[in-house]
Design a protein that fits this description.
Helices cover 85% and strands 0% of the residues. It is mostly helical. It has a single domain (3-214), classed as Phosphate transport system protein phou homolog 2, domain 2 (Methane Monooxygenase Hydroxylase, Chain G, domain 1, Up-down Bundle), CATH 1.20.58.220. Helix 2 (40-71) packs antiparallel against helix 3. It is elongated and about 70 Å long. It starts with a helix and ends in a 7-residue tail after the last helix.
Length: 221
């Protein structure tokens, strides 16, 4: 394959990985909106829309495999393709977490620990995802480190939220309907856990981007 065609394929791969990230971020935003509105129908659109993400993931996975197998890239190009391959996996998993949130939307009870700000945690993870993908798209190592440092704040917020939910449960009078109360509490704890995992996947993306840019595995774990 002529060098110009090969470079065009690499650039197209980058563009499509960035497009996938936009699609996934949109799914996550919609899921958070569905949670905020207690809107089961809106949550269902996230669930049904996951098929599109999965199909795009499989297409990009095949393109990465073909570029490695058929073109035998070296050095920077190989790191770029390998990073892209790993990043789309993290994006697909974020989309799966968004579908979880979509499922919770119609069943969420906003009276359970109303002071827990799920939306703020969600916004923070979306910002981390945006920073990580910008680092990948613009080959910006500084943003990679910013994502990693932001994750500490998200982890702390998730831990505080979970502690708050448990404390509220201990202090509440839920004897009238303990089963329903426990269902709502469990769902809120799962929501917080899933958002924390979104942040972890954003860090994975940043780590792969840093390795791609500088051949630096500092953030890989």
């Amino acid at each position: 394959m002529p060098r110009e065609q090969y470079q065009t394929k690499l650039e197209a791969l980058r563009d499509d990985v960035l497009y996938m990230s936009e699609l996934v971020a949109d799914r996550l935003r919609t899921a958070l909106d569905a949670l905020a509105r207690h809107d089961a129908a809106l949550g269902e659109t996230v669930i049904t829309g996951d098929t599109e993400v999965n199909e795009l993931y499989l297409e990009l996975e095949q393109r990465c495999t073909d570029l490695i197998a058929l073109q035998q890239p070296v050095a920077g190009d190989l790191r770029f393709i390998a990073a892209s391959f790993k990043i789309i996996t993290d994006l697909e998993r974020i989309a799966d977490l968004a579908t979880n949130l979509g499922r919770y939307a119609g069943q969420a009870d906003h009276e359970v620990s109303p002071d827990v700000d799920v939306q703020q945690i969600g916004d923070d993870t979306l910002e981390m995802l945006d920073l990580a993908m910008t680092a990948y798209g613009e080959s910006d190592p500084d943003r990679c480190y910013t994502v990693a440092s932001r994750d500490d704040d998200v982890d702390a917020a998730c831990e505080a939220a979970s502690d708050h939910v448990v404390r509220d449960l201990i202090e509440s009078d839920y004897a009238a309907d303990p089963e329903t109360t426990m269902e709502h509490v469990s769902r809120l704890l799962l929501t917080v856990r899933d958002l924390e995992r979104v942040g972890d996947h954003a860090v994975n993306i940043a780590a792969r981007a840093l390795y791609m840019i500088e051949n630096d595995d500092e953030l890989l774990y």
